[in-house]
Amino acid sequence: MLNKIRIVLVNTSHMGNVGGVARAMKNMGLENLYLVEPQGNIADQQAVARASGATDLLKNAVVCETLEEAVADCHLVVGTSARSRHIPWPLSNPRECAARVAQVCEHENQVAIVFGRESSGLTNEELHLCNLHVHIPTNEEFSSLNIAAAVQVLSYEMRLAWLDQQQNLSSKEDSESNAINWGVDWDYELATHEDLERFFEHLEKTLVDIEFLDPNNPKQLMTRLRRLYQRTGIDKVEVNILRGILSATHKATQKTK
Fold it and tell me: The whole model's pTM is what?
């Protein structure tokens, strides 16, 4: 589970914080660090000092130009949010989030947990790229968390979920010969972020073509449709089915023109 989780930092401005994040991750057994447009050199002396021995995570960190690039191959993308948004999005606390991540990782899926800028967090546009949002329920009178502390909280919950998973696996193996399995594994892997983005582009184009979406007055239609599809956990075959429907819809509309 833990090796399927990546921590993604967007536009981090203080390299010491990156080092602190690396230390927090390594404490909890997480190793995959992704940086989107960091505002400095990750080999910075402060980053190395704050890493306190977790310099291998800094050395192996993947630097990306965009958030889309950093999460393209992920099947679940979780955005950290410190404040409510204009359109409500599926929201969880760290423990609920960890349970969801553990469930997703059971089937070899990749997960990204995305943290925003120290001063302003993630933009609405960046949060709209996420399947769900997680909020750390801090003291409302003093709610600001250092990014390394926020990563520590989420990483700790991921480790607890992993430990529970290991314990349950051990118990299951002990009793497997006498148990009847009424459940089934999911038949296809979840769609990746890149799969979904292509679907959303296809969906928007089709909606414009059939004049359901006015590109000059889109309101919040695509945002709401993103929320609808991203919270369902669509698999790869389902995405292909939906895109096939869109292609057939487009073809039918061309015949009537």
Answer: 0.82
